[in-house]
Queue: 3 jobs
Job 1
Amino acid sequence: MFKGRLSSSINQSKLEFKIPRVSYKGVNSENFNLQIDTQNPIYSTFVSIGKISGERYNIHDFYTLGIRKNDTLSFRSEFKGALDSTDEFKFNSYQTVSDGFSVFGILPSSVLYRDNLWKINADSDKNHIIKFNNLDQSITLSSFEAESENEHVFVSGSYHSKNDFALVLDLDHVNLDKVASYNPNFDLKGNIDLSLNIRRSFSDNTFNLDGEISDLNVNNQSMGDFKVFTSGNTQLNSYELNAVLDRSGKKSLTGKGTLLGLDQKPRLDLDLVFDEFDLKFLTPLGKDNINNLRGIARGEINLWGPLDGIMHSGGLKIDNAGFTLPSLNTDYQFENETLIGLIDQKFEIKSARIVDTKFDTQASLSGVFQHQKFKDWSLNMKVDSDRILMLNLPEDEERVFYGDGFLNGSVNLIGPAKKLDNRCGWFHRRGN
């Protein structure tokens, strides 16, 4: 719906514009409403959107009020976020024109994100502004600061062209779970201290990143302190990477390599060394099908190729490894020093012995796990045994099978991980 009139005369415009639904590049908006009324004493501009849904985040009940005073337009914006609308955003800002620049000022505002209240420009600093040069299209962010209790975020930067830009980012004791995007497989905790300085110009082509996540915890498993150091030249577009995961003085993971073409199509060449690296944090990847994933990894691998299609090569030896199949009530342990080879986008087990932890029956396992950009996992695995426990369920009237079941023969697991084709040579059940 569209009705009203626009006029070049002052205080002579009145317009209402409504769209029930708009979709653009995977973002869907519902109930878009724009009102302009230059004679309204409360607001001259009103915008509301019922819902904005994207792949990673949803916004609800968005509205903005704008009122003009002289040559300045002030805004008050509020909306709710997350699937359950528990995040709340309240922004105050203004827009004006000064010396040929469009100036956007950030006034004291607040964000309630994951039950943590962040205050933006709490001290009413007049330097919290964004300047846009209408002639050369350059943009400058003088300062942006946010704080939550003893946590602090600072950002400043500028962009004049692809050969002249700058960015400064400082994070001081920021809780990782307050800023990391939600991932159902990884619950991340820790404290981030980070300093990032990026510059490209005729005289300065600095890239320095110095960061640490202290007390890193992944899926309720203590990992230690993770440190990363990166330096390079923005003109050459080449950067050196160094990283280390240290737990109580033991370096369980170290990394060293290079990153090329950061602002183009980034390519990575990174060597990783694992030493008594605990794999328990991977358990959530198994969802309801596999749990109690465990093991200690050591070895060397290389990650290489474009960031959107990383390849890997090398090998890992796994000790004290095992997993549980809840639907069958069975648990298995790998023999120590099981070798996993990494080739391109495949994880290969040439031959490994697994033992069930109840009856000590054994089988030989071999095959390949394959992925596409760490998604769309598939496998081609084979289990051979003359006797291994495959079923261990108590009697239940609702179950078709129960008791202790053993495999004598072979099983092939083939196809996408979400929909496997199980091919069984011979299955013998006992005790049902």
Job 2
Amino acid sequence: MTILEHPEAQAILNDAVLTVEQVVGISQRIEPFLQRYLPLFQRPEQRTNAQHILNGKLSSLSRKTAEPIAHSEGVRREVLQDFLGVSPWKDQTVLGELRKHVIEVWNDPNGVLFGDGSGFPKKGNHSCGVKRQYCGRLGKVENCQIGVFLGYGCRYGHTLLDHRLFLPKEWANDPQRREATGVPKEVEYKEIWEIFLDQVDECKDVPHSWITADAEFGRVYQCRKGLRQRQERYVVDVREDMLIRDLHATPPKRQGDRGRHPLPPWQPIQAWADSQPQSAWTRFEIRAGEKRPLEVEATQTQVQTRDDKKVGDEERLVVIRTVNNPESKTWFTLSNAEENVPLAEVVRGHAQRYWEEASFKEGKSEVGMAHYEVRGWRGWHHHMTMSLLALWFLGLERFQEQSTTPALTVSVLREVFSRVLALGRLTLEGIVQELNETLRRTEEARIYHWMANTGKYPPRRVVLRNSGISVAEVGEPCGSPGLLQAA
């Protein structure tokens, strides 16, 4: 009996099968989805163009900018360019409806809001907000625009909820460049972390129990203070060189009988973590990865931080590092969770940041989030709004189909639409066969990786049932990192 013939393998592979009826249903649900959003565009031509753009973003086009989409849809290029670049429809109206839709369908009180910035490399100096600044996508300082995004992850799925273009100070203070790129008068310079807090305010009604963010936000004391003032529970990344005082450490002895009792010394977080004995670390399995179980170990203490000689409030330091993983990584995090909140719950909250990476990957690889040629403020936000709308549609469809096909991915879902558009040269049966071959290859690779690394078969992408709602419990990209167990 081969590995793939084993009953456990067969059960996994049976979860990776689509039917003709499913493909037909998925392709037909784009219309009712659009009917919710098209009325938000004021004019008939805007509604038509919005549908063209969404079709293009769900297609197999290698570049999903206005021109190739126009060729694919059989319309004039200038029409779609104007719709994205200058047409006066309101992004926040569309995004507000998207958030309302997420609340209606998912409504998970244990969800997590995650914030992050994303760089978009650009040539030239005319695109709104462009400058030489650190670009995470390239890992270096480069000419780019920076977008600030807020997303949502829960047991039912993940998606992006909001976007804002960061306007550097030299742009905000330059009337000529503001006018040339259409920056609204009410837009003022704000630090990236301030934009993030504004987004938290916009999305506060989306049910959640944690807020996570990368070190660009977490390292800033005012950002963490802003989250506390909003009564948000957070676990955010910080840099390893941040100075902390371990409030549980034994302080130095006082010299003499007078004066204050000395406090524990300041030290970088990295130095504190390096000094912890192995007995201080607790191991957790956070989720079933594609190649092996993903395990981490974590340690914690209560600390104060020092930033620019300012001493911060008491916070919880949690250091998390991967175990038995060739791509080792360590996260240094701060949280305002009370001491009686189990360490496992804090690690669970931080593990949800995985959906941030998954959302950006899917947004850029599947719906062309990084494919744009607009230069103005309005054009950038219009493009991102349509990208987030397409991404939400795919996430929603994956959620709806997982009870039947737990292994279904956003990538394959996007392929469903591109293949259906090709019905003139392919039959439905042929489309389904190609899609199932793709799903099967993914699951076969997962089986082989797990057997090679653990000697065990991977868990099935099990479907939980909760009040009639079917969701994926384990697996990527909709599995719940929240199901942690001490190893």
Job 3
Amino acid sequence: MIYLLDTNVWIQFLRNRNALVVQRIHAHQPSELRVCSVSAAELYHGCLRSAKPRAEPSGKVRGQRSGQRS
């Protein structure tokens, strides 16, 4: 059987936060586990952000944010 895991499940597994999640993932062969392109992109984006947790947004992004209405 093939399992498509959500981004949150991968994060819990990668950070070793939930013993049950880790146990269940280890109970399956890697060929049975999948990650969709959206989850892969979210994980990639999260990795990039975590490498620079205090980075300021560029001036262009800052300006766009301040121009938005609530």
